[in-house]
Amino acid sequence: xxxxxxxxxxxxxxxxxxxxxxxxxxxxxxxxxxxxxxxxxxxxxxxxxxxxxxxxxxxxx
Length: 61
Prior knowledge:
The chain has two helices and three strands; from the N terminus they run βαβαβ. It is of the alpha/beta class. It has one domain. A three-stranded parallel sheet has the order 1-2-3, covered by helices on one side.
């Protein structure tokens, strides 16, 4: 599993063949529109799903 907050990180995880890639958009300085745009970009790059709080990661492990 990889948890990434950047598009390049997600792409690297995909290239490495990591089976489960989770995107993270928890930066508090992002507006709701920016957060949605970032989430869409992470999913397009290969993230299986995107979380906004690290606490949400516990249920995915």
